[in-house]
Amino acid sequence: LGIVLEGDPALANVYHVLRPDPVRVPRVNVAGGRALEDFLVSPAAQAAIETFGVETHGAPLFFPDAGKPEPE
Fold first, then answer.
1. Per-residue DSSP letters for 14-46?
2. What confidence tier does 24 reach under pLDDT thresholds 50, 70, 90?
3. What Cα–Cα distance (Å) separates residue 28 from each residue in 10, 38, 41?
4. Confidence (pTM)
5. CA distances (Å), 13 to each of 8, 28, 42, 67, 68, in order?
6. What is the C-alpha end-to-end distance of the chain, expressed in Å?
């Protein structure tokens, strides 16, 4: 099976961190949500994301994107 299309921004599968509104979801762990968000955008986590899968598959499975503007 060959690659048909690669590198097109329309193919980006961007993941987001969404924290629920504590007013609408009173049981939400606000501090935990903020801590997770801070961790995921940290340089250490972004480096882990960038290298995830390289050892097993020879290429990264994900591409870090924290802090970059989303394509329009």
1. -----PPPTTTSTT--HHHHHHHHHHHTSHHHH
2. very high
3. 33, 17, 21
4. 0.72
5. 11, 27, 20, 16, 14
6. 31
